[in-house]
Specification:
about 270 residues; TIM Barrel; 2 domains; globular; binds 3-methyl-2-oxobutanoic acid
């Protein structure tokens, strides 16, 4: 496991993501939603932490990302930002917080920055969001775009399948990526798109592409931490690599604890006052 613990404790900035792309250094990202987990992930040396609106699924147990509120995202983002010393912390703007108008998007973006201490925001959508994104960037806030499978539009998309399989959608996605770059995005998440298209987008734009289910040619990768640590049992898409079985570890530990309580093994004399 050599080489994954960082000795460089300087805070990573959004402009560094672009520098890493130019230098050909791959960018590692994971999600986190709470102080304790974010601290563990940060100390392992990750480059970026996304306070994803997947908190809606992972933390709150909702079926999709639509119900999570701006106040709830602010609570998660503040907890993560407090723990992180090294990684760039990006917070998802939740559904409904930027779609209504450009002005409301900017106001809510400013609120997240003021109240959480995160370093950047992520916004789903292409050309239709470019004007809002430009306004947020002009306010001094780094923005990461999000193309391909955009879960906040799941009801319009009709499912969580691979996006941009046909040429027309692939061309549209490439044009959207150019628009997001022109709007000032420092990065673009590419979710569930063919590897060849993700590679083409990565070569075309100057901002850093972060893939999830988008092959190996993006500038970086992101996974949901609970999925890659084996905490979520039912979710096993093809793109996911599971690095641990924390679900089994936790179940086993809890089982031992229950047994120790029932048999009066715990607490022992040395664990008592
Ligand atoms: O909310 C999230 O976790 C995300 C990642 C899947 C990229 O947007």
């Amino acid at each position: 496991m050599a080489g994954y613990l960082t000795t460089d404790k300087k805070k990573i900035t959004s402009t560094q993501f672009i520098a890493m792309k130019r230098a050909g250094e791959k960018i590692s990202m994971l999600t986190a939603y709470d102080y304790t987990t974010a601290g563990i992930i940060d100390r392992a040396g990750i480059d970026g932490i996304l306070v994803g609106d997947s908190a809606s699924n992972v933390m709150a147990g909702h079926a999709d990302t639509l119900p999570i509120t701006l106040d709830e995202m602010i609570y998660h983002a503040r907890s993560v930002a407090k723990a992180v010393k090294h990684a760039l912390v990006v917070c998802d703007m939740p559904f409904g917080s930027y779609q209504i108008s450009r002005e409301e998007g900017i106001r809510n973006a400013v609120r997240v920055m003021k109240e959480t201490g995160v370093d950047a925001l992520k916004i789903e959508g292409g050309a239709e969001m470019a004007d809002t994104i430009k306004g947020i960037v002009d306010a001094g806030i780094p923005v990461m775009g999000h193309l391909g499978l955009t879960p906040q539009s799941i009801n319009k998309l009709g499912g969580y399948g691979l996006r941009a399989k046909d040429e027309a959608e692939a061309e549209r996605l490439l044009a959207d990526a150019r628009k997001l770059e022109a709007a000032g995005c420092f990065g673009i998440t590419l979710e569930k798109v063919p590897a060849a298209l993700a590679a083409k987008v990565t070569k075309t734009v100057g901002c850093a592409t972060i893939g999830i289910g988008a092959g190996n040619e993006t500038d970086g990768q992101i996974l949901v931490y609970a999925d890659m640590l084996g905490m979520t049992q039912a979710f096993r898409p093809k793109f996911l690599r599971v690095y641990a079985d924390l679900s089994a570890v936790m179940t086993d530990a809890v089982g031992h604890y229950i047994n120790d309580v029932k048999t009066k093994d715990f607490p022992s004399a040395t664990e008592s006052y």
